[in-house]
Amino acid sequence: MKMNIYHLVSNKVWGGGEQYVLDLACRQRDAGHYVEIVCRNEPEVIAPFRTKEFPISTLPLKGLTDLDSGVRLARMVKKRRNTVIHVHNFKNAFTASVARSLSENQGLKIVMTRHLVKRGKNSIVYRKLYKEVDRIVFVSNLTREVFLSTNPKIDRSKLSVVHNSVLPTPTTEAVDLHSRFGIAPEKAIILFHGRISPEKGIDVLLRAVSQLPREKYHLLIFGEGKKHVMKKLREIIVSNNIGECVTFAGYQTDIQPFVRSCDIAVQPSVWQEPLGLANLESMMWGRAVVTTNNGAQPEYIVDGRDGILVDPGNPYALADALSRLIASPELRRELGEAAKKRFETDFAYPRFFDAISNIYNHLWDNNE
Questions:
Q1: Nearest Cα to Cα of residue 43 among 1, 14, 78
Q2: What DSSP line would sit under 69-116, residue for residue?
Q3: Which are the contacts of 362, defined by CB distance < 8 A and separation ≥ 6?
Q4: Which residues contact 89 (CB under 8 A, 6 or more apart)?
Q5: Residues 56-84 pLDDT 10s
Q6: Does the model's pTM come out above 0.85?
Q7: S-S: 343 plus which of 24, 192, 277, 283, CB 3.0-4.6 Å?
Q8: N-to-C CA span, the chain
């Protein structure tokens, strides 16, 4: 059945959740569905969807008190059959619920992906909202368990776990990172990519690499961050005298050529990662991954088999893991090959897309 799918995206900056939507929207369109992106008027978020030529509508998307967004969305979906509004937080679920009610389109379904590790709420308002949402997809077992830890009043049959995945870039080719960034050929290249924000633990990473022999490695940090965050990180670099070993490489529209070309991929998050698309991206390209063990990472990485897990916020443990990989190209190869195999077996995008498609296809079962 062909569907009309509206993805609601309300973040102000681009992140893993937005990439999730972009990849999913591309595959849904390829499968013959009509897909439209509804988002705030945020150029950084709009640009990648516009590049892929999706129809885009802009709304305030401010949540419970924003009736205007619900009214305008209702007009968009009023005469659309087989319609799914796919939201990516509870705030937008309120908007979707209002739109369904005002549009009188009772065949419209609401799907939500839960991208965060947060406990469920039990207020009267949320209990009503839980009844309105037709399915909730959790990106990991951890996100589901934490949500249910408060015993929210919700029909458990509506809940599914579908682990995230990432799409490979069709024309990804390796990059000579040593030449590109003027790095000596004998140095192992360690790569971080993602948001440069406190919860990502980059300060811990800098303190970890400061313990390593400077002639053995170079750290590339891909991403952007707020000025005060960048200032703090540069101060750590200066105080530890590692300026010649670290490069802030900025934001890349397509990071995959850089990921597939590094020696070691690192994600030192100090918060509970709901899943971690950056880790999966590194595994997809067969890179040796070092990351923390405090989120959903143990659901897809077995320490010592297809990656290395360390305690969050511990620069000494992180330094030890990086040191072992720098010293052993063979260990890097073994972990990278195992990671690639794990990704292809359990986390490749076709598996993810089939699972999401099955959820969509069964939305109308109760009405038949």
A1: 14
A2: HHHHHHHHHTT-SSEEEEESSHHHHHHHHHHHHHHT-TT-EEEEEE-S
A3: none
A4: 10, 112, 115, 116
A5: 999 999 998 999 999 999 999 998 889 99
A6: yes
A7: 283
A8: 14
